[in-house]
Amino acid sequence: MPDQINPWETLSSQRFYESRYVDVDQDEVRHRSGRIHPYTALRFRFYVIAVLPIFADGSTRLIGQYRYLARDYTWELPRGSGSKSVDPLETAQRELKEETGATAGQWLELFRLMVSPGVTDERAPCFVAWDLSQGAADPDSQEDLTIRRLPFRDAVAAALDGTISDAASVATLLAVHTRAAQGNLPADLMRRLR
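Structure tokens predicted for GDP-mannose pyrophosphatase:
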């Protein structure tokens, strides 16, 4: 087993930027080897969730939108952000309803993905939702979303061929695919994925 004890000592921290979403700090740290160096850290005030909705027929929904920072049109699972003071499940329920109009009777949190642990403390809680009821979507006014319904297996193929490149979406799709192959999901969800 590798040594899992924190090898870093924070000597000082200076905040360079603060916004309602993220703080940028410059920490001076010492490694147990004795080396001292600066470490730039993005510290998020929120988390971003991903939700894989599974309908009774085994289909799911993807959201298409242009992502400004990536300068690319992406296909993703329903995604959204929430304050760290709010339960991630509440955020997931809200985002699924806003973006797709669906509400779910069953939820399973799969993991909290570390987005880019060398630069940021951001984590992304990732969920699968089923036992769905359909209503009307109500996205934020600044969101230009395209909603696409497709078989779960086609979404997995899109994650594997790079059509879906959002890390949380890919991880969630592949985790559910793998757990389904292992028979390691609730029985009523397994029936929808066959």
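The longest strand covers residues 102-114.
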